[in-house]
Amino acid sequence: QEESETERSRRAMSMVYDMLTWWQESLLTVLLSGDGPA
Fold first, then answer.
1. Alpha-carbon dihedral of residues 28, 29, 33, 37, nearest 10 degrees?
2. φ and ψ at 26, to 5 degrees?
3. 7, 8, 36 from 3: Cα distances, Å
4. Residues 17 and 11: beta-carbon distance below 8 Å
5. CB within 8 Å of 7: residues ≥ 6 apart
6. What span, in angstroms and rounded, lies between the C-alpha atoms of 38 and 35?
7. Each residue's pLDDT tens digit, 1-36
8. 38 secondary structure, DSSP code
């Protein structure tokens, strides 16, 4: 059971990391392209 808990948290961390990476890339793209909503 403990192994499944570790597996679950590891998968969650991976998902969060992917989301943060995607968000950061999108933000950089908007800032560098200079045509953001601001």
1. -80
2. -65, -45
3. 6, 9, 44
4. no
5. none
6. 8
7. 677 999 999 999 999 999 999 999 999 998 898 875
8. -
> What pTM value is reported for the model?
0.58
**Amino acid identity, residue 29?**
T
Residue 36 contacts residue 30 (beta carbons within 8 Å): yes
Q: Report residue 37's pLDDT band, with 50, 70 and 90 as the boundaries.
A: low
Longest pairwise C-alpha distance within the chain: 50
Structure token pair of residue 17: 């990391």
